[in-house]
Every structure is written in structure tokens, then in C-alpha cells.
Amino acid sequence: MTSAPRVSRKGLLAAIAAFMVLLSALSISAPPAGAAESRRWPELSQYWPDGRNGGPREYAFHDVSTDTRNYHLNHCPRGYLCVAAGEGDGQHTVFILYYCTSRSLYYFHDRGAVTNNQYGSWASVMYEDHSPYTLIESNNRSVSIPWDPIYYLDPCI
């Protein structure tokens, strides 16, 4: 009968302790010089890129130039609300929204714009207390919005 080699309990505990110290050191070390910070694109709650219950899709375009942003705002599809927000680096995110669900806004900063090309519905952008900042008529014209005080968007009121 062969016996397995015995491992000293002290040796095993020392190895585990050394491994834990190594993990701790790795978790608190700084990122390498020149490593990019993680960036957050503007986001919306209740966004349906695959459609809703078989309905039309909604779209988000990230890292678009000012010219592309303006193209999307000036060519907002009929029946949609187009929303543009800056990303803080000269690039923009544009949302093409179809559904009338109220949305919460995340990481929307500085100035942006909204074009309402829906079928007769007004859109509303609102402060944190849900009071309206402005109403946007369905006239396919771009309206400039300062996003910093805005927390909510209601595409259809």
C-alpha cells in the first residue's frame, strides 16, 4: 500500500497566507501608466434595441461626430424622438426612440438636443423633481437642451 506524501499543515497555511497577500497587493495596485479610465456613455432606462413585443427597434449610436449627430437630429425618422448627448470628448451619443415610456437619464452632461418627429405627441424633459423643464412640439425641429439639470425624458405626453 502506497501512502500519499504528507504536507505539513504549517507549510500549507503559509502558502495560503502568501497567496492571499499576493491577491491583496494586486487588488490595490494602481493601473499602469497611460491606462485609459473607463468612460461612461450616456444611457437611458427603458431602452429597447430589439423592439418591444415584436414592435419597432430603438437605436443608440455612440462615438459619433458632430456632423453625424446633426444628421441624425435633422433626419429623425417619422414616428420617432431623436435625442443627442455629448460624451465629454467631442463625440456624441444619439438615441432614436419609438416607445412612449418615461425614461431616466444617466451620464447626460453639458448641452445636447432633441428632435421630435412623432405623430402629434409632445415630448417633455424634466428636472429631478419631475417638474417640466420644457415641452418639445412634434415639428421635426431640433431643440437645444442643457442636460445637467435634466433627469427624465417623457417621449409622449
TrEMBL record:
It comes from the Bacteria. InterPro entries: TAT_signal. Keywords: Signal. Residues 1-35 form the signal peptide. This is Secreted protein. It comes from Streptomyces umbrinus.
